[in-house]
Design goal:
Layout (H helix, E strand, L loop, with lengths): L2 H12 L3 H8 L3 H8 L7 H11 L3 H5 L3
Helix pairs in contact: 2-3
Length: about 60
């Protein structure tokens, strides 16, 4: 798994939409979509914000399966 796939997994586990996650981390929904699809990599600050919003660690977001 890559970072985007992990973000999607934890987002779905948390039961929130891309839009809700985007609002929580102050980006637009398109950015979350691109990250989840592997088109863009999130910056370190954005990754940290996403991890916090999803209740997981940076290690969990960056872990490969």
């Amino acid at each position: 798994m890559n970072v985007g796939e992990n973000i999607k997994k934890y987002r779905e586990k948390a039961g929130i939409s891309q839009k809700q996650l985007a609002e929580a981390v102050l980006v637009d929904q398109a950015m979350i979509c691109k990250v989840e699809r592997g088109i863009k990599l999130p910056s370190l600050p954005l990754s940290m914000a996403i991890a916090k919003a999803l209740g997981c660690t940076m290690n969990e977001l960056t872990a490969s399966a």
